[in-house]
Amino acid sequence: MQFTQARRPRRKPSLTPMIDVVFLLLVFFMLASRFGSDAVLQLPLAGRGGEYAGPPRLVGIGAGNLDLNGVPIAASHLPLALAPLMSSPEDILILRGRDGAGLQRIIDVTTLLRDAGLVNVVLVE
Fold it and tell me: Is Transport among this UniProt entry's keywords (predicted)?
């Protein structure tokens, strides 16, 4: 007489649901990621920027501030303050990064100047 039931063999867990989840995550992250869009910022070297003529036009770029020829200025007023110092939009404009100014800050100021039509920007150390 037997009181216990016969043991059924244990089923091995199926890996199919886990593989499905891994592939779904892979597809999700592939579609959600943004592939880099390379942008080129044209900055001539200081020695190759052409002939400098006219009054000084030195824009100092700090982490949170800007100055034009040593005088602090707001970023929104920079193109207007440069207008009397330049005879044409092709005149050379010198940018100098100060301590704490990151690359993104320099790119933002350069984009602001290019949007205002000032195209000949030289970055010095």
Answer: yes
Q: What is the pLDDT of residues 54-88, one digit of tens each?
A: 788 888 888 888 888 888 898 888 888 888 888 88
SS3 of 43-76: the string is: CCCHHHCCCCCCCCCEEEECCCCEEECCEEECHH
d(CA 48, CA 2): 99
Structural domains for the chain: 46-124 (3.30.420.270)
Answer yes or no: pTM beyond 0.85: no
